[in-house]
Design goal:
Length: 318
């Protein structure tokens, strides 16, 4: 059963939250009245928690600061962290997602929403357990057919500190109001020969290749305020509320030049050097009825499409 740590400075709310979690089948809940006490619990209790629920606004540590502190603990770098918020301060929510939050739950609590959010965490943990088993099988030289089944999975890339989970990026989009949604754009960076490398390399070598590309993306975007996530299938998605200081073509050239530094290493493994294609930015159309995550889909589609086959009007509208 999932072990949950819930943190809020309001004891009445904590009791309500724990009660609702028990009602939907999650009875292993530990509650803490402050961020500092929660960190002490994580460090010294000997309990390893599967999920953390934290209030956004607390007097000692706010949600973003607590999330960042939790992520510094090696055992909790990938643990789902859900922010509990009245959604009164969008900047605080932004900071929490940037610090590593996975999702959010709004106050006042709704049992249907709570069940959906915790159910999502349950499925995410089950998928991670499956991927851990997959990694073990890769280490034992699992059959190629089994390894190939993971190409489309948005895995967490080791050492990719600036990256957030793809699920967290999708959840973040759902927190944006209409006005901010229109000012937000997404663009994707696709490794054109990812499938070739995947089919030729071991699982560990393929993940290392993703790390090489991630490092070059971070370096090329080091002066930009962007969120970056790996979406699977050799594609990274970036999201920003500002216009980039460089064109997609310039960014593509910069990343590919950086990747050529690894040519000797890839040649020794008889693999091609990864080469990327950067798509056009996608934005939501004004008064568009489409779902917020549509801009991610459009951004990925642009990166998958060669420039000469894209629409001629440049920016894609979701």
């Amino acid at each position: 059963m999932m072990r949950i740590l819930a943190i809020d400075d309001d004891p009445v709310f904590l009791e309500l939250l724990a009660g609702m979690l028990r009602m939907i089948g999650y009875g292993q809940v530990t509650t803490m009245p402050s961020g500092h006490e929660a960190l002490h619990e994580l460090d010294f209790s000997g309990m390893l928690y599967d999920c953390i629920l934290s209030d956004m606004q607390m007097p000692d540590l706010d949600g973003a600061a607590l999330t960042a502190a939790i992520r510094q603990r090696t055992a909790y770098r990938q643990t789902p962290i859900l922010m509990i918020t009245a959604m009164s301060g969008k900047n605080a929510v932004d900071e929490a997602f940037a610090a590593g939050a996975t999702d959010y739950i709004t106050k006042p609590l709704d049992i249907i929403e709570l069940r959906a959010r915790i159910g999502m965490v349950d499925r995410l943990l089950a998928e991670r357990r499956r991927l851990a088993e997959f990694a073990r099988l890769v280490g034992q030289r699992a059959a190629a057919a089994e390894i190939k089944a993971e190409f489309e999975t948005p895995i967490i890339i080791p050492g990719f500190e600036r990256g957030i989970e793809f699920l967290a990026m999708e959840n973040y989009l759902l927190t944006l109001g209409v006005k901010r949604m229109y000012s937000t754009s997404a663009f994707a960076i696709h490794i054109k020969n990812a499938s070739i490398i995947f089919n030729k390399a071991s699982g560990a070598t393929y993940v290392q290749m993703l790390g090489d590309v991630a490092a070059q993306i971070v370096d090329a975007l080091k002066t930009e305020d962007v969120m970056i996530a790996y979406a699977g299938s050799g594609t990274f998605v970036c999201m920003t509320e500002r216009d980039l200081g460089q064109t997609p073509d310039d960014l593509e050239i910069l990343i590919n030049i950086g990747l050529m530094d690894f040519e000797t290493i890839y040649a020794s493994d008889r693999l091609p050097v990864p080469q990327v294609r950067v798509g056009e930015p996608a934005r939501s159309a004004f008064l568009s009825p489409t779902k917020p995550t549509r801009i991610i889909e459009r951004a990925i589609q642009s990166a998958l499409t060669p420039p000469d086959k894209r629409s001629k009007n440049g920016q894609m509208v979701a």
